[in-house]
Hints:
- By secondary structure, this protein is an all-alpha fold.
- Among the domains are: 1-103, no CATH class; 291-327, no CATH class.
- The protein is built from eleven helices and two strands.
- It has helices at residues 17-45, 47-58, 70-100, 113-122, 127-135, 153-168, 175-194, 205-230, 262-290, 302-310, 322-327, and strands at 142-143, 247-248.
- The chain has a two-stranded parallel ribbon.
- It is globular and about 80 Å long.
- The termini are far apart.
Amino acid sequence: xxxxxxxxxxxxxxxxxxxxxxxxxxxxxxxxxxxxxxxxxxxxxxxxxxxxxxxxxxxxxxxxxxxxxxxxxxxxxxxxxxxxxxxxxxxxxxxxxxxxxxxxxxxxxxxxxxxxxxxxxxxxxxxxxxxxxxxxxxxxxxxxxxxxxxxxxxxxxxxxxxxxxxxxxxxxxxxxxxxxxxxxxxxxxxxxxxxxxxxxxxxxxxxxxxxxxxxxxxxxxxxxxxxxxxxxxxxxxxxxxxxxxxxxxxxxxxxxxxxxxxxxxxxxxxxxxxxxxxxxxxxxxxxxxxxxxxxxxxxxxxxxxxxxxxxxxxxxxxxxxxxxxxxxxxxxx
Length: 333
């Protein structure tokens, strides 16, 4: 049996240049995800179910839906919702790729802080002027929690993994790796298809705080750390000022919601404190694994030896690794 064409209709506007390239890339990514969703539906619910979704997507008007049962209508609604989610993911992946390649959608302005500094230098601005301009720059995204949010944390996790896997396919992969990447994507799309998209009960403030902080932990904090690492050495005669910081209204955005009270604020503050401490502890554990530097092969200052002696590592296998004495995380065995 011939496999039906599951691609979305081509956009009637033929865009040229980078905008056209982006539109074609979104279409390519969306077609792949749509095909994977069809395969997942066929695998889990049967070929007839997948063909029914294809027919409904290609239909015009409401007549094809008039005789559907409640279960059939719910099935199609879930399929359409998953298609819409995957389309959004395709756009997001393309946007990330454009940023990674240093392009902005048809604009000539710099899209990164480093690019802006380089542009100012080429325009003849002095190092002092650039430093003073950066010192006045403050970017502070503020996170808040909305108890009306219906997306589940499990769904957010699926979306994050799918976009991550799609981003890995930015470059042409060898056939074996391409097949492996496609199989991993199929697994995630199949899990998405089997995941309930919304909550059966009204979400509480504490639930939404956890949802927001899960995104901060998985995406925001690593991104902020990567940005500051990229900005190292941005200025030749000074350190890059802290232009980016994070703000939060979690648990404190008291706009009349009865669930946002002093207890909610305390819960939010404690959760954020644990999140930051856990993040730093993870970084410290990674640093501890890297600092297996033997004093037999590298000179160690007297200050480091004194710090290490104040908290010696009890393991006899690390007696010649003074950097690890002091930096050992408490949870590391």
